[in-house]
Amino acid sequence: MRRILILLTLSIIYITSAKAQKIDTLSINLEGVKYPYALKYLPLNIDGQDINMAYMDVAPTITPNGRTVMLFHGKNFGGYYWGSVIKALAAVGFRVIAPDQIGFGRSSKPIINYTFKQLAEWNKKLLDTLGIKKTSILGHSMGGMLATRFALMYPERMDKLLLENPIGLEDYKAFVPASTVEEQYKRELKNTAQSIKKYYQSSYFTIWKPEYDYLVNIAAGPTFSADYPKAAKVAALTYNMIYEQPVVDEFKDLKVPTILFIGKEDKTIVGKGLLSKDQQAIHGLYRFLGKNTALKIPGSKIIEFEDCGHIPHVEITTEFLIALIGGL
Fold this sequence. Notes:
The chain is α/β, with parallel strands linked by helices. It has helices spanning 2-23, 83-90, 116-130, 142-153, 181-189, 193-204, 213-220, 228-244, 277-280, 286-296, 312-315, 317-327, and strands at residues 39-46, 49-58, 68-72, 95-99, 135-140, 158-164, 258-263, 301-305.
């Protein structure tokens, strides 16, 4: 009996310890996450707040070709998932700049009115600070919306616009019910590792593999932090930015050479949880959205990937990199 009590006590201690470790795993600024390359910080100021924009600046690992590629991450991610892309681009002579947008990753998370215009201005300031006159921009997911806005605002600063499964290929306001920031904030507070993984499995990948778990761990880690309410508020504000500031009607105005890289099995919809199953079945279909968008962008090209979801550079890394470098 005494042995059973000891084992039970040890089990309780272990479970409690594991839970505590999980709670403390990640801060909302992801200090515990290892980035593939060293981070630097650009100081900025908005509404009287001093903030910092984290970024990686990686030099070519062979003779430089004189060109730069800037990488814009998606809403549920940060620069940490660009490692293979940075390595491949640097290996063929490109300088690579990979920022964490304000409100994401290692960058500051101020409570402000987020706009794609402001984010674009900050990225231009980063280029100006680094002395970079022109760049190609690869934007994934939300980063594709931001890259599109940047291209519309500063076409003279770009060589190419590269869109990897960008969101915003349809106007979410046309079919997703409107939400206040407060309503979205309450939904963000309910996020768990289980709900995040379920969403990633249903929208982002065709077949789930254990190596994708790290993306869930990074996204879910801050939900255990005492500061998570602040991160949830920022997430609600950036959700509102996506919902209220579509680019779908402006693709026709792009003047930068554009390539779309589309995983055809992607089913991403911003606000998917607010839709019925029948509504989900007719929206977020990238096998159609990609082609339709390519028709809207003057002179654009599209490269489609079979059996691939929302993140080609993770799900089919080699195939994606061959297409990307060929496109550049």
